[in-house]
Amino acid sequence: MSRQGTRGVDPRKVNGELFTLTYGALVAQLLRDYEDDDEVNKQLEKMGYNIGVRLIEDFLARNNSSRCNDFRETAEIISKVGFKMYLGITPVVSNWSPAGDEFSLLIENNPLADFVELPPGHNNLNFSNLLCGVLKGALEMVQMDVDVRFVQDQLKGDNITELRLKFLRRLEDAIPVGED
């Protein structure tokens, strides 16, 4: 009996491609179920939010970085650690607002968009809107209320994929009613 050879195959690459294909099937199913780009965008963001709420615990457990002091430091950790850890990419942090409360993540090669072409008639679909939800959910768990949205998308013919994050406010730790 011989063993199947798996030498030379990076399991992370295989897992990444499997995730990409599975994600594409999920988006296709949502398009069939909702038939409306805006509703699909909402569903993807909601799913991403739920992932982000849970993902932050894994991120904090696996990463030994201390609490970020400001939004700039948070942006660097998101780009250089978070995206690298979970998607194997490092987006460029760019386009800071003068107030320092808003920045862009520029993604040259979006792994969620590998093997993807937007179907005709779905120009309002933000295929990778899951990322917006993940960022919003994860940052909310570390007491940061942010707005995350797509500005540019390579799937729509832009040169780069750009996510824009805007810090809205710091959330206060709240103790549930009846607990001290």
What does this structure look like?
With 180 residues, this protein is an alpha+beta fold. The protein has one domain (16-117, 125-170): Muramoyl-pentapeptide Carboxypeptidase, domain 2. It is built from 4 helices and 4 strands, in the order H-H-H-E-E-H-E-E. The chain has a 4-stranded antiparallel sheet with strand order 1-2-4-3, covered by helices on one side. A hairpin with an 8-residue loop joins strand 3 (144-152) and strand 4 (161-170). Helix 1 (11-34) packs antiparallel against helix 2 and helix 2 (37-62) packs across helix 4. The longest helix is centred in the N-terminal third of the chain and has 26 residues, at 37-62. It is globular.
What's the SSE blueprint?
Layout: H1 11-34, H2 37-62, H3 71-87, E1 92-94, E2 102-107, H4 130-141, E3 144-152, E4 161-170
Antiparallel strand pairs: 1-2, 2-4, 3-4
Task: Summarize the entry for a quick read.
The protein has 180 residues and is α+β, with helices and mostly antiparallel strands.
H/E series, N to C?
A: HHHEEHEE
Radius of gyration: 18 Å
CATH class division: Alpha Beta
Question: What is the overall number of helices?
Answer: 4
InterPro entries: Bet3 (IPR016721), NO_sig/Golgi_transp_ligand-bd (IPR024096), TRAPP_component (IPR007194)
Family: Belongs to the TRAPP small subunits family. BET3 subfamily.
Pfam family, one: TRAPP
Organism: Mytilus coruscus (Sea mussel)
